[in-house]
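Postdoc handover notes: sequence design on the structure in folder B. Input tokens:
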């Protein structure tokens, strides 16, 4: 292989490895979030029972329990938002991988001599190009969703 092809192949492997590592980190974080959800749920159930069952409890104790319950809800909402962001990132990684694969296929067809291409080759090249445009549009939609979410949080 010429040097530029080796360089492209190395860069592609590095990008693929980065996507894989990022996907693993996201998966670990999603699992951590799930465990934290369960813990928050259990704490919330305990607090709700305390609030419902304790009629003779001083008002300041009930207020403290209510504040703790509100804090748990706020923390759960924050985790849900993070989980949503991570799911969008997972979709983005999948689309990146799909785009890379389509790009590789398209390069194979485009590197062929035009005079040697069959009508099937040209049709396949066109189909890959259409699929590539669809993937790029999907990625654009995800970026738009992330931007809207970021702006709404501000």
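Designed sequence:
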């Amino acid at each position: 292989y010429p040097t530029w092809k080796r360089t492209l192949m190395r860069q592609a492997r590095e990008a693929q490895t980065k996507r894989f590592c990022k996907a693993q980190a996201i998966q670990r974080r999603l699992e951590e979030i799930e465990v934290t959800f369960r813990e928050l749920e259990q704490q919330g159930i305990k607090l709700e029972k305390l609030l419902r069952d304790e009629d003779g409890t001083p008002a300041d104790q009930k207020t403290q329990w209510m504040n703790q319950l509100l804090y748990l809800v706020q923390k759960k909402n924050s985790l849900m938002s993070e989980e949503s962001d991570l799911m969008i990132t997972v979709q983005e990684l999948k689309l990146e991988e799909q785009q890379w694969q389509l790009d590789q296929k398209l390069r194979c067809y485009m590197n062929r001599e035009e005079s040697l291409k069959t009508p099937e080759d040209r049709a396949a090249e066109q189909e890959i190009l259409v699929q590539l445009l669809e993937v790029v549009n999907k990625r654009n939609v995800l970026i738009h969703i992330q931007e809207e979410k970021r702006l709404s949080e501000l």
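Context for whoever picks this up: The radius of gyration is 25 Å. Don't rerun without checking with the PI first.
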